[in-house]
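Check this:
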Amino acid sequence: MDSRQLFDQFGRRITYLRMSVTDRCNFRCTYCMPAGGLRELGRYELLTLEELARLGRVFVEEGIGKIRLTGGEPLLRHDLHILVRDLSRLPGLRELCLTTNGHLLAEQAEILARAGLMRVNVSLDSLDPEKFKRITRGGDLRRVLQGLNAARAVIPGPVKINVVASRGFNDDEVLDFARLTLDPGYHVRFIEPMPMSPHASWERGEVLSVIAIQRQIEETYGLEPVAGNFSLAGPASRFRIPGAAGELGFIGAVTDEFCARCNRIRLTPDGKLRGCLMADGEIDFLRPMRSGVSDEGLREMLYQAMRVKPERHYINEFYFIRPLRTMSQIGG
């Protein structure tokens, strides 16, 4: 039976929940957090697995068809496979995905696949070991590549690579990433860096537009649009190099605003629901849940979030204020 349909105040149908399970991360990426890290949430400040599963059930009953588990680094939550199992059994949930930095993926891919994980995205900003180590402040590229290979062997859906594109850092690797859609057939997403939090390094001049990236790939290989059902899709414009097994996606949050077709909400690891990544308005679900709120009460809070979800992010306006939280605190 189909679930209900969920709409925000601007008539956008909301089908996609990004559910963060932890703010902890084993990388210190330069565009995400300071080198010394940030204060981490205590155990009792985090939503429990049971609370996450309950919210997932209520949200799916109200029209969410896709859940993506994020962090921080979600694989640091050692019992993540239990949550995956519980969510994968929800009637009406059509996609259950994970975004990870891949460092622990080789060890966990099989148990996650058995639990019901359908798709995985791996954040990977350079194929050069030294550059990768520099941007992650210590990451091991070899381990991430092992994780990608392990995921390809057991995860049912296509394995995707997320690339944050920065001028002067990885703009010389665009074609190298594009070739990964030919062999071994990964799906690659190029993402413009966004001005996340006061701690993150970000300058507009460093943004490598996805339009420029798309043009470079098209001039070398040619591109054809990918057709399909996008009701659960993320914000990427999707293309394929002719004959490639994998796809290319372009996410232009800064230069190609896609707010008018936004279908997402975000749940932070401490139980706050955000209607927009770049706007600090949040509704607290954690305290009401621990005070005994009913499922009907949770539904009303969800509808409240729909009434205050902003129309757009205003990144390109002079009065834009960066979010107070980092990406790791909100959920990547």
About this structure: The CA atoms of residues 123 and 212 lie 21 Å apart. The chain has a mean pLDDT of 91.
